[in-house]
Amino acid sequence: MAAAIAREVHALDPSVAPYELITMQEQLERSTSPQRVAVTLVGVLGGLALLLAAIGLYGVMSYTVSQSTRELGLRMALGAGSSNLLHLVLSRGLALTGAGSCSALAPRCC
Fold first, then answer.
1. Residue 97, class by beta-carbon neighbours within 10 Å (0-12 exposed, 13-18 middle, 19+ buried)?
2. For the whole prediction, is pTM greater than 0.70?
3. pLDDT tens digits for 18-59?
4. In this structure, are residues 28 and 16 in contact, taking their beta carbons and an 8 Å threshold?
5. DSSP symbols for 65-96
6. Contact 17, 6 (CB under 8 A)
7. CB burial string 23-61: b at 16+ within 10 A, e below
């Protein structure tokens, strides 16, 4: 097909010769490849940031629960159910997460 196109172009204008013949799909892929690489890189780095945030949150929650082991034991001895303890731990974790998010998202004033 490339030879036929080159003949037709040469028949229309003998001083013009096609340099490279590519399909529209190849042209589209060439023109959008930098954007695809950038989007992929942003996605990978965003996933890594999410993973690191989850690991950090797990560490903070683990430390908080380990520091309040005696309190949780005392609450269990006084009759608190496991759902009450779970609610207590999750509410403290949510408070810590909210405080961290607010401090990270708050605009810096100079």
1. middle
2. no
3. 778 888 899 999 999 999 999 999 999 999 999 998 999 899
4. no
5. HHHTHHHHHHHHHTT--HHHHHHHHHHHHHHH
6. yes
7. eeeeeeeeeeeeeeeeeeeeeeeeeeeeeeeeeeeeeeb
